[in-house]
């Protein structure tokens, strides 16, 4: 089993930073330009400049890869490791902090008539208030909900997986993938939890078998997956524009091919590239990586999703219409990532340490092992 210092190796922390950057980039395209959650706006980007429209297809893949990396790293580090319940309590405390803080931002912005949040479905003040105090059940952040459920099942998963041989482990992984793939085609409430379990088991399998792929081979194969995913999205766009017969069915097939085959392979190759790196531990990298969930919570709540992409950055109506779109997209993602990272780092320094000390004392009091 790896030591704590090994687990905090900067190559894995750098992977977490890369994963969160990919997620922010995905959200820029998905919510800022394509507005995929707003049916009446989701097709507006198709009328944009051809180069810009094509570029969105090549910048879209990062979300699935980033999410997969985080779930996979959880399996890699938590397989056969002592289970610490206080970790999930600290995450819950962080979620509630940002949920309430963003609720205050929402009320302040509306009260000052700065922005009316036209895309926010729960624009009713009462619903915003309730959702802010019930962030897990209200679905404010699907990743946090899924991660929390996965974390609660970790002890059971580890007991089961630890009894498997390497060959049995591989069979279980394949079966889990099939159980994920089929519902993803036909629709299923717990599809995201299934996805998280698949990636967790994949990470645990790599930990158990010490599976290795050369970093340069991994990088090449990762690029192949990225290009394949991008061309599939381009093909989907053409079918939508040209209204090709049976396009709806083909779009579903292509989308699931991307989601359940190409993306998991890209996640594996990305992990193997960083896993084979040899870099010294770096305090700055580790510090930035520690803000990863804060970056996610700040920029992708229903409140900030609407406010940032539309009011602050004007992704669709200004950036996407510009010939400088590639530079504007890169600059926006970097500025947002750095700003959110700084905010969360300040939260850690000013608030989190005090909250964590309370959580530690409570856990030690109520969850002490009996002698």
Describe this protein's structure:
This protein has 371 residues and is mainly α. The chain has helices at 4-7, 10-33, 50-59, 62-78, 86-111, 125-133, 142-162, 166-186, 191-209, 215-242, 247-275, 283-289, 292-299, 302-312, 315-319, 325-366. Helix 7 (142-162) crosses helix 9 (191-209) and helix 8 (166-186) packs antiparallel against helix 9 (191-209). It is globular and about 55 Å long. Residues 1-6 have low confidence and may be disordered.
- How far apart are the termini? 25 Å
Tally of DSSP β-strands: 0
Biggest sheet overview: none
Tally of alpha and pi helices: 16
Average pLDDT, rounded to a whole number, is 86
Class from secondary-structure proportions: mainly alpha
Cα Rg: 21 Å
Give the DSSP E fraction (strand runs of 2 or more residues). Answer: under 5%
Low-pLDDT residue intervals, each spanning 5 or more residues: 1-6
Secondary structure layout:
Layout: H1 4-7, H2 10-33, H3 50-59, H4 62-78, H5 86-111, H6 125-133, H7 142-162, H8 166-186, H9 191-209, H10 215-242, H11 247-275, H12 283-289, H13 292-299, H14 302-312, H15 315-319, H16 325-366
Helix pairs in contact: 2-4, 2-11, 2-12, 2-13, 2-14, 2-16, 3-10, 4-9, 4-11, 5-6, 5-16, 7-9, 8-9, 8-11, 10-11, 13-16
Please provide a brief summary of the model:
It contains 16 helices and no strands. It has helices spanning 4-7, 10-33, 50-59, 62-78, 86-111, 125-133, 142-162, 166-186, 191-209, 215-242, 247-275, 283-289, 292-299, 302-312, 315-319, 325-366.
């Amino acid at each position: 089993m790896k030591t704590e210092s090994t687990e905090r190796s900067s190559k894995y922390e750098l992977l977490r930073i890369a994963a969160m950057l990919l997620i922010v980039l995905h959200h820029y395209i998905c919510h800022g330009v394509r507005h995929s959650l707003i049916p009446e706006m989701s097709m507006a980007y198709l009328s944009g400049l051809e180069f810009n429209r094509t570029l969105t297809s090549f910048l879209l893949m990062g979300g699935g890869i980033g999410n997969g990396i985080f779930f996979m790293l959880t399996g890699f580090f938590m397989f056969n490791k002592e289970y610490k319940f206080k970790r999930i309590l600290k995450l819950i405390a962080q979620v509630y902090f940002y949920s309430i803080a963003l609720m205050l931002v929402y009320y302040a912005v509306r009260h000052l008539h700065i922005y009316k949040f036209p895309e926010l479905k729960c624009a009713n003040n009462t619903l915003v208030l309730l959702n802010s105090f019930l962030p897990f059940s209200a679905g404010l952040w699907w990743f946090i909900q899924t991660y929390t459920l996965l974390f609660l099942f970790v002890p059971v998963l580890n007991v089961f997986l630890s009894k498997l041989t390497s060959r049995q482990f591989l069979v279980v992984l394949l079966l889990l993938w099939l159980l994920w793939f089929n519902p993803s085609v036909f629709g299923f409430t717990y599809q995201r939890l299934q996805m998280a379990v698949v990636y967790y088991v994949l990470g645990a399998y790599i930990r158990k078998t010490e599976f290795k792929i050369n970093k340069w081979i991994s990088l090449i194969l990762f690029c192949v997956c990225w290009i394949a995913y991008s061309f599939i999205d381009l093909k989907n766009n053409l079918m939508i524009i040209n209204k090709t017969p049976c396009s709806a069915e083909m779009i579903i097939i292509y989308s699931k091919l991307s989601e359940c085959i190409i993306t998991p392979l890209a996640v594996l190759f990305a992990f193997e590239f960083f896993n084979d790196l040899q870099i010294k531990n770096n305090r700055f990298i580790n510090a930035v990586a520690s803000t990863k969930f804060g970056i996610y919570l700040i920029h992708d709540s229903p409140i900030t999703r609407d406010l940032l992409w539309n009011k602050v950055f004007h992704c669709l109506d200004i950036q996407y219409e510009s010939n400088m779109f590639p530079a504007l997209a890169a600059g926006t993602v970097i500025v947002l990532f750095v700003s959110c990272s700084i905010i969360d780092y300040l939260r850690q320094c000013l608030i989190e340490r005090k909250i964590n000390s309370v959580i530690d004392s409570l856990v030690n009091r109520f969850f002490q092992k009996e002698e």
